[in-house]
Amino acid sequence: MKSKNFFERFANWATKFTGSSAAFISATLIVIIWAVTGPVFNYSETWQLVINTGTTIITFLMVFLIQKAQNKDSKAIQIKLNELIASNEKASNRIVDIEDLTEKELDQLHCYYEMLSDYAEKDEDIHQSHSIDAAKKNQDHKYEAFQKRHEEWLSRQNQKKES
Length: 163
Known about the structure:
mainly alpha; elongated
């Protein structure tokens, strides 16, 4: 593996630090010190500008740092999920790397999985099928078997009435 470049190491450190108790306590202390110095500077515009400028700059930079961390975490989670899908014999490999689909395509896929959920709710064993096609086929087979048993039962009821 490549060694991490300076920005990667800094981003990892900054992400860990800014999410720590020490960072929160430091920020709180800065705000308290700024507030306490208000009377010394007569609550001047310059005094207000110091905190406004500082927080604006930090917020601006944190947006990019947070997005970088989010991108890295998201990519790692996608890779882990792809590995789980690829390693499970019952999982459909068609959904590996679906993160590249458009929002509309993802919505359509979501609808298919809602249908799969509906079929699974009708099954006693949720592990019976792993795709919409297989779930529908399984459900159709169960329905046909039910219909056959029901017709046999009706036939027996009619025979009892006739006798």
